[in-house]
Amino acid sequence: MQIVRYFFVGGAAAVVDVAVFAALINLLGVHYLVAGAAGFLLATWVNYVLSVRHVFAAGVRFSRRRELLAVYAVSAVGLLWHQAALYAGVELLAINVYAAKVGAIALVFFWNFFLRKHFVFAPAAPRP
Q1: Is the pTM of this model over 0.90?
Q2: Per the CB 3.0–4.6 Å rule, which of 13, 95, 106, 127 could disulfide with 47?
């Protein structure tokens, strides 16, 4: 059931991600990779806020500050995957930039869920 809740949280964050992406490209003429990173970073914040309210228990393993840092650390790797997928979609596969963006979001979804569930929000292992 947790992944279902995370799917809805991820969907809300994806809406923010794509909206920022589209606004930066269409309104400000920002390069798609810069817009992709900006949307991703804001969506990570939205995902964190919604996740601790609806999916994961906050402060289980880390303080809230360290927890947020851990989310962004995990997401940094996700961002690398995202940017590579976005670049590959646009430059190598010559698909529409928005289709590439959706594909990049989908690719990173499971990475983020797995690492958040099993590292960021998982209880610390008991000490012997």
Answers
A1: no
A2: 13
Say how far residue 30 (Cα) sits from the centre of its chain.
20
The residues, any chain, with a CB within 8 Å of residue 5's CB and separated by 6 or more, are: 54, 55
Helix (H) or strand (E) holding 81: helix 64-87
4, 107 Cβ separation under 8 angstroms? no
Q: Is 1 helix (H, G, I), strand (E, B) or coil?
A: coil
Length of the chain: 128
Q: Is the dihedral of CA 93, 97, 103, 104 positive or negative?
A: positive
The pLDDT assigned to 128 comes to 66
Task: Name the band, by pLDDT with cuts 50, 70 and 90, for residue 121.
Answer: confident
